[in-house]
Design goal:
The protein contains six helices and no strands. The protein is mainly alpha-helical. The chain starts with a helix and ends in a 5-residue tail after the last helix.
């Protein structure tokens, strides 16, 4: 019995390491972290950005695996986490779309030459409104 638990723990650890390595490699390949550092003009603090991403991944994993952990600050921490997670997911989505040249292709095919900023902003606001609608109305799939 103990040997089965040790084997399952080892397999779970190996699988988790493989998934996290793939996730962080994906973030590096699509250029999310280097692009954020470049946009912030903070090349000297690169290690801080990398540490923040790693600590965020560890914190998110611990909080999703150990559901019985209760953190203080309730709604305040939840708002900060939600905002951070939204920015993270949005950054990955935009970086991936940029790598695949999605936006230039769509803009060229639709004939949009000016107002690209407003198109991108309206797409982001539409995503925000859809997410708020989803969470306010507690829609479950």
């Amino acid at each position: 019995m103990l040997s089965e638990h040790i084997l399952l723990g080892f397999i779970g650890l190996c699988a988790g390491l493989a998934v996290s390595a793939g996730t962080f490699a994906f973030l590096i390949v699509i250029g999310v972290i280097p692009r954020m550092i470049g946009k912030c003009n903070r090349a000297a603090e690169t290690i801080h950005f990398e540490n923040a991403v790693i600590l965020g991944g560890i914190f998110g994993t611990v909080m999703s695996v150990f559901l019985q952990i209760q953190l203080p600050l309730g709604p305040l921490l939840l708002c900060a986490y939600g905002l951070s997670a939204g920015i993270f997911v949005g950054s990955i989505a935009v970086a991936l779309a940029e790598i695949l040249n999605t936006f230039p292709i769509v803009f060229r095919r639709t004939g949009i030459k000016t107002g690209l900023f407003w198109v991108m902003l309206s797409m982001a606001l539409g995503k925000l409104c859809g997410s708020l609608y989803y969470f306010i109305n507690r829609i479950a799939g």
